[in-house]
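FAQ: What does the model actually see?

It sees only this:
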Amino acid sequence: MGDLVIFVVLWIVLSLVAEWALGLAKAHTLYYIIASQGFIAEKAFNFLATWLTPVFVFVVLFLIFTLIRFHAPDGKPVKSSQQTMRNMGFTIFWVGLSFALNIMFFLHPTSSDLEQMFSAWEPARNRGDLVVDVTARQWEWIYTYPQYGIKQAVNNLGEDELELPVDRKVKFVLRSYDPFHTYDVYAGVIHDFWIPAFGMKEAVVPGLTRYEYIRPMQIASYQTNPMVRVQCAEVCGPGHPWMESPVNIVSTGQFARWIKLQQKLQAQAGS
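And it is asked to produce this:
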């Protein structure tokens, strides 16, 4: 009984210390998230980490405690005066607790957060969104703004870039094919549209059209934080590590000026 009391006290103290350290990490932001749906994932991680920290401490402490407390001196086994082969109460408690935790995690945050994210994709909630067609080819991201007649958005160096207005819903239409060559669309490869600062990614599959909805919530740019970029997260060939492009989250006024500039550049290229 003495060993059990010592173990429980150690477990409680170390769990409190671990939760305190986790709280400090949360306060200093474990992730750099600037988009609405990304905060859902961040809250889910924090919830799971909070609940699983005592479980992690229990398992690690149990291994270390038994290794030290019941270590045989000089490597010679010593027969214990008290040995228990089976403890049905402990088995039922441990299995029941594990089952309850898994059911809880399935209901929340898994199911509840997925329902929240899927409901945000309903057409009725996405009227008037900014639509950005994203084309993935080996090894380039191409951005088209059909609402403004922009066929390929580029910066002043002629490089592809993604410009988004802050606090406006964005609908990404994702496709994988090469618009500059005529060939079977199914002959492409799978890419993965990933903006680390948004906390979400979506596979871009040849022959399929996929969608992602997001709402940037603060002004940011690749120049100030490298997490604000589009990065392919699916190995797609030798050029995969360099399949990235900068992202700029700007004010509404600046976005309007950028649209006019893109339209001017496109008109000059077509003349």
